[in-house]
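User: My instructor asked us to take a sequence, write out its structure as tokens, and then describe one feature of it. I'm not sure where to start. Here is the sequence I was given:
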Amino acid sequence: MENHAWALILVAQEGKLGETYNIGGHNEKTNLEVVQTICDLLQELVPQDSSYRDLITFVTDRHDHRYAIDAGKIEQELGWTPQETFKTGLRKTVQWYLSNKPGWQKVQDGSYQGERLGVTT
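Assistant: Let's start with the prediction itself. The structure tokens for your sequence are:
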């Protein structure tokens, strides 16, 4: 999360107006690798008797087998490189979701109605 935010600040301050910069970490992974890593992190952080990997369900109509971003331009033109690895960044993301369950559960259960969250009046 911080990686991306710092890259956005750098682009806003030093990027060329009208240019597009892809922000990525050279971590090309298959969808299955991403899901398995999330399952392994959950098993470590919130252990259960059966493996979270047992919850993976394969479907026949998936066409997006992987995602890849070429971040060469932001590195070459602005000197930005990621400070997080795929695993450390994903760990922080999973930990955030585990720590903020009440907020995202409202979206999942349908009780979130578009109001601004996290702001007190």
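For the description part of your assignment, you could build on this observation: The chain is about 50% helix and 5% strand. Try explaining in your own words what that tells you about the chain.
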